[in-house]
Amino acid sequence: MRYSALSLLKNALSGHKNWQPLWRDDNPKDGYDILIIGGGGHGLATAYYLAKEFGITNVAVLEKGWIGGGNVGRNTTIIRSNYLLPGNIPFYELSMQLWEDLEQDINYNAMISQRGVLNLYHSDGQRDAFARRGNAMRLHGVDAQLLDVGEVLRLVPHLNVEDARFPILGGLFQPRGGTVRHDAVAWGYARAAGARGVSIVQNCEVTGFNISNGKVFGVETTRGPINAGRIGVAVAGSSGLLAQMAGLKLPVESHVLQAFVSEALKPVINTVVTYGAGHFYISQSDKGGLVFGGDLDGYNSYAQRGNLATVEDVCEGAISMMPALGAARILRHWGGIVDMSMDGSPIIDKTPVDGLYLNAGWCYGGFKATPASGLAFAHLLAREVSLEEAAAYRLDRFGEGALLDEKGMGAQPNLH
After folding, report:
1. CB neighbours of 258 closer than 8 A, spacing ≥ 6?
2. Interval 174-193: pLDDT, tens
């Protein structure tokens, strides 16, 4: 079924009784040309672009739970391409361009809202660093504006710019940045991939790999063995666990990253704002809730929940930046498991096991990268060479010293 005003009218007249499921809940076959482990945004996008761009449809996406139940439904929905290093800017700008055309491409409302992303600065040195970042973006054709404090207040009037420990002096603004409804991205890609013949297999956990003479031939799952010519792993915070099953040790660590939603409020923040004096970011959803988050919990964990120390730290950042937020009540909070690479940048590459490919190490940046990550991983799986925009995301860069340390904050993943 193709969504349109006409189909909406037709189903309204029939009492909305004839809508079809978004995708088929398939049973696994004995084998596929390509297996994608992980039914999150990256895995589903990979399957979709394999079918659309490369004509490979004998593909299965294996998800251990349900579609939308992992990190793709546990993030703060922000999209942006305001990066500094040449290894990152083209990739994230490709992702932004794919976001802009996504709804028409997959015929699904992902609620893309290009409301802008504003990064605040609090000192002359931080201003100069943001000016450098903005200039790097513009040299790559990416939109960037350096705003003074008056221009910032016109965007977000309720900020605490003067009576604060860290007075706000201005900000770096990317107008094309914004937010996207996270679970709609998973549902939309699953629907679009399924419509092109991809199998979506839920409740199918991978428990091992069938490897012989350095080559992978398939996987063992809770629903039986499945053979495949090539296998792509896109499992976010579980990357280290899956790699261990294949005898690999990855340069990643798994950490909890919490997110929060407040009670519904009248419109108060019409853009995405990040606090330059601490790791805090916030936007307002279409339902009225303030969606915000902060830093990692700081210890290794596979539990999808956080601790109260981080809750306190995030709330302190919120009130420092905008004291009025102190009157809002938190409705709920949750944790997602992120795979933090040693340099803060992702990995999209072959592994030492022939036929096994890796999409991992996304740190904080996984959701915004979803379309470009899917396209790049599909390109790698189909042609066995990296997409040009993802060429820097090699696995061997950690051994060769060709790191992409975007924030320049050291080699410990908890510092990124």
Report:
1. 293, 294, 297, 306, 310, 311, 314, 333, 334, 335
2. 999 999 999 999 999 999 99
